[in-house]
Amino acid sequence: MADHIISYSEESMDFYNYSYYDCCLAEPCNFNPYEEFSERFLPPFYALIFLLGLGGNLMVIAVLLLDRVSLFGNDIFVFNLAIADILLVVTLPFWAAQAVLGWIFKDFFCKVIGSILKINFYASILFLICISFERYLSIVYVIRMYNRNKRFLIIYTTLLVWLVCFLLAVPDFMYLTAEFDSRQNATSCVLVFPQHSRKTWNIALIIINQVVAFLFPMIAMVYCYVHIILTLRRSKGFQKHKALKVILAVVVAFFLCWSPYHLVQFITTLHQLDLLVIDCQWGDNLDIASIVTTCLGFFHCCLNPLLYAFIGIKFRNKLLTVLRRFGCINQNYWNRHFRPSSQPRDSSWSESTDCSYTTF
After folding, report:
1. Over 50: is that where the pLDDT of 24 sits?
2. If residue 190 lies in a helix (H) or strand (E), which one and from where to where?
3. Tell me, what DSSP letter sits at residue 147?
4. Which of 98, 133, 165, 282 is deepest in the core (most CB within 10 A)?
């Protein structure tokens, strides 16, 4: 029997988490605490994320498509962000079912569903960087990326993001396997690497995950938004303070949702490098922590529509316009809540040098 089997996100939704059944010298560790917690916790929490994430992101897509105006600039990034979040949350029912029943689907679906999860996990985060960088350019340097002459840059960037995400998911498609585990008496969709390179794959994927999905996005977002804040503070827009609060909310939400997950991954990396000894009790706690922190990270998909769309003045105007067109609200309600902007039509989430109407 292999020394370790990487447990994929179907049980703990932790991409590279070890199962600590060989951590005790006397006898294998008991999986019951981990399995019982997973079976009770995952289905209802994934159902909540599925419903909120699907509803909020479908609303974003519907408003963008029903606006009768071609997508420009950050609109394209937000549209793709919503697509990535939707594709991510639609995989959650499969993992919730596995937590209770084991992997009851075919081996091919294990590869497909797992790869879809990984692709859109990375896409959801990388498009946040694109949104932040577009805002940085449009506010700090007044480079309007939504200009028709520069629209191809947005499109090429979008295609590049998806290509990178597909490449990052290649190991998942290659090594994900529906495998029966006699110790747990259940079939799981797990990453099973070749015996001679298992440890190398484990450590490499964890490091890539932490750099691409956390360190790089966090540094990029902080850099962009610090410069945006400095620019807004020099402006005389009367709503700049609201813009600063929204910027703070974006960074804090990302940090609070994803830093616990990557902290658990860091501890796992130390264990795999033999720099940290973990017994059975610590192994159980780490597995349970992986479940909770990964769910918290996925909850960020539900916050994205609020942070990047619904709190923006121009998006709310677009939403009200669409609702009025379909008779969902009357003219009086529209007149009370619609806030016209003096700026010409631009990207719905970008901002020009006029900060009097923040579009965050």
Report:
1. no
2. strand 186-191
3. S
4. 98
